[in-house]
Design brief:
5 strands, binds adenosine monophosphate, HIT family, subunit A, about 140 residues, single chain, 3 helices
Length: about 140
């Protein structure tokens, strides 16, 4: 399979690894939002959140917490964004599941979403909430 993250995991392409356990490796993003931006990558190939099994899905948050603490210490950043892009519509470019650990600094002015929608009414919010609950 022609997957760049599988090649990194196999050692065929170099990376700046910062963490490894039985399920994940984590390495520096080659084009960081800020220096110290880390990617947590399952060793097995999953496309994104939609096909990730419970084992990795449940374990990744603990790794994200550990790495968030390390990135804060290492970079002196003031905050962390944990981000996962799922499908092209959401900005996913590498189709091997991964979570971004992004250091953030007071006043860095980066915004995840610059335009927010508004619901017409609380009723409309209720209809949407019901639709999501029925889809669980
Ligand atoms: P996404 O848009 O969530 O799929 O993000 C993919 C990320 O992978 C981007 O931020 C890229 O900079 C990063 N990336 C792509 N190739 C490499 C690589 N060889 N080593 C490290 N990071 C990479």
């Amino acid at each position: 399979m022609d997957c760049i993250f599988c090649k990194i995991i196999a050692g065929e392409i170099p990376c700046s690894k910062v963490y490894e356990d039985s399920l994940f490796i984590a390495f520096l993003d080659i084009k960081p939002v800020h220096k110290g931006h880390v990617l947590i990558v399952p060793k097995k190939h999953f496309v994104n959140v939609f096909d990730t099994p419970d084992l990795e899905a449940e374990a990744i948050y603990k790794v994200a917490r550990t790495l968030s603490e390390a990135v804060v210490k290492a970079t002196g950043c003031d905050g962390i964004n944990l981000v996962q892009n799922n499908n092209a519509a959401a900005g996913q470019e590498v189709f091997h599941s991964h979570m971004h650990v992004i250091p953030r600094f007071d006043g860095d002015k980066l915004r995840f979403a610059s335009i927010h929608k508004e619901y017409d009414s609380f009723d409309e919010m209720g209809v949407m909430a019901e639709k999501i609950k029925e889809s669980l």
